[in-house]
Amino acid sequence: MPALRIGLMGCGQIALSTHLPVLAHLPDVQLVALAETDSGCLKKASGFAPKALTFDHYEKLLQLEEMDAVVICLPNHLHAEAAMAALQRGKHVYLEKPLATNLKEGQKVLTSWQQAGTVGMMGFNYRFNPVYLDLKQQISSGKIGPWVYARSVFSTPLRSILEWKRSRQTGGGALLDLASHHIDLVRFIFHQEIIEVSAKIDSIQTEDDQAILELRLANGSRVQSFFSISSVEEDRLEVYGQSGKLSVNRYLSPDVEMNGPTLERIRLRQLWRSLKALIHLPYLFDKIRHSNGEPSYRKALVHFVAAAKGNRPTTPDFYDGYRSLEIVAAAEESAKTGKMISLPDAVR
Q1: Same-domain pairing of 175 and 275
Q2: Residues 218 and 177 in one domain
Q3: What local confidence, expressed as pLDDT, does residue 261 receive?
Q4: Sheet arrangement for strand 244-249
Q5: Residue 283: per-residue pLDDT
């Protein structure tokens, strides 16, 4: 089977550090085109794919007929229009989150995708992280008994922020940047839809850069989450059950950590984890070796390539992207009104 011919839209930091190094080394992929308005970034990107044609705007890239699929890494406010333009030309699309910056645009993307009949995959790559897959399996198997509560933290320190990330209107803020990932993980790991949302949003350094969410799932369980792009580096998910607690630190955990219900068992577990850390050194080195210390980027792109070559449905798809956007919109409404917001039934 011939290689999948891919065009990359947007050659900024995330593409240079993650997507380009992965795509350039996949054996069944041919990078045929690159699009970027910044000439410096475009030159750096060409180093990964010297034979690829280069364009100063994604619309020019889409005129290229010898292309099967596109990977979109543009600023958030361009996601919807770029995805629709690619879908209308019959291309398979891998779109970094979010699907769009508002529900009206998100619905238009869904309509274009349904009409195109091509693969539309969201960049919710954490679904492919081995520790989250293990966490999902342990919850499903009843490792901690019925789970009753979960909490998560996803925060980053204050860094130099691109101008478009400073404003919610252009797709900035902690909800679209960070919360969208955890919202998708909640739906994926617990296999439950989120039916109610309560939120508080603050602007500390930039607009809407900190948020606290409380989510109620269809089975009645609750998840509380903290998101910030002006705090410390942390990405943690903890699940409390009747027989113990499971936790994952995406940056540091080599596997899922489990604590029993009593302090004595917790101490024994801590000792065992210290010994087991030596066993997992290869995994930790693998995390260091991959882009951003996150091997799931490669797994997600490999998954997309296989789906596009076979023209078969895949997840997470654009529906998952829309559902995440619905919950972000509900959180923003809750923060404005001070009320718990109910969500419509999740029907594809």
Answers
A1: yes
A2: yes
A3: 72
A4: 257-259, 244-249, 234-241, 147-155, 222-228, 210-217, 194-202, 341-342
A5: 52
